[in-house]
Every structure is written in C-alpha cells, then in structure tokens.
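Side project, low priority. Logging it here so it doesn't get lost.
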Amino acid sequence: MRIIGGQAKGRIIQFPAASRERPTSDFLRETLFNILGPLAEKSFLDLFAGSGSVGIEAASRGAKEIVFIEKDKKIAAVAKKNVVSCNLDSVCRIIARDVGAGLGDLFKNKNKFDIVFADPPYNRGLVDVTIKLLKQNPVFTEEAIVVIQHSTRENAESLLNEKLILIDQRKYGDNALTFFKWSAHDTGKI
C-alpha cells in the first residue's frame, strides 16, 4: 500500500499482517480524493482508521488537520508510525479508542470537521451505527461531507431522511463510497 498523491506521494504504508480487517485499496483512495477535490485548509476525520492510509492521504494532499480514531491499540500504533514515517505528524492526531467514545470526546471539545470519512468493518451492521453516532455527536461543519465506505451488500440509502441527504454514491465491485450531507434544518430525527 502506498500514498497516491501530495507531499508523501509514493511512501509505503505498513499494515499489520495479523489484522482481520482490510485496508482501503489504492484504487478506492485515489477515487475518493479525486471526488473530494482540493483539501487545502480543510479538516478531516478518519473513523475506523486502521493503519491510517486514508487520513495520511488527506494530510499528504494538504488537509490542515487530520484526526484518526482506531480502537485497536496495536493498529493505532502502526498508524502513528506511518504518520511519522511520512513526516505528517504535525497535522495528524491519533485517538486509540472506539468510534463512539472518540466521537464523544471530540464533540465535548467542540471539534468540527469539513470531511468525515468512515470505513467500518464490512457487513457487521456498522454503517447505520456510525450514522447514529455522528448524529449524537455532530462533529462536522455546516458544509461538511460525510463519506462512508461500505460493502455494496449494505444499504446505506435506507438511512436517508429529510436531515441526511445523499449527494453521491460510487460502486466498485463489493465496495461502495457513499457521500452524504446533513441538512442545516435539523428535525431531530435520523
């Protein structure tokens, strides 16, 4: 696995061989960042961060602040090593906690992000859990984009309502990238 663009382009990212989880492929990362466009002056939250490849890609492409949340402490330590090896530790922070607790801490501290990316483990019912956690802990700016990477067998569209708006979805084999925005008119429902 390698960084696709920006100042750390070509750097190799390590991933623990013993991990059961799969990292986001180079192809999906390149697709994601081509869709998102320029990241200068944007803050980026990487949920279920794993070895950090997506957040590191965001930092490499100019995001001003990147926060990673990864509950597995060993994998979070690998993410930290990857950040340091890419010389991006000045803009990156890693939280080794589960996503719910990490989001709660960020919300209590009034953190806000322009882009929220989540890659929960596939086919475990975590797409809807992630959306509900974000609803409970709105750590995003009014214009934020929320991107969920998930299996095409998971129906992210079932979560849509007048508050959560689908803006794009791309499918590649068993992988989907679903892009949402939250409406500024919160009805309190999700």
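Brief comment: The helical segments are 26-36, 53-60, 73-85, 99-108, 126-136.
Revisit when time allows.
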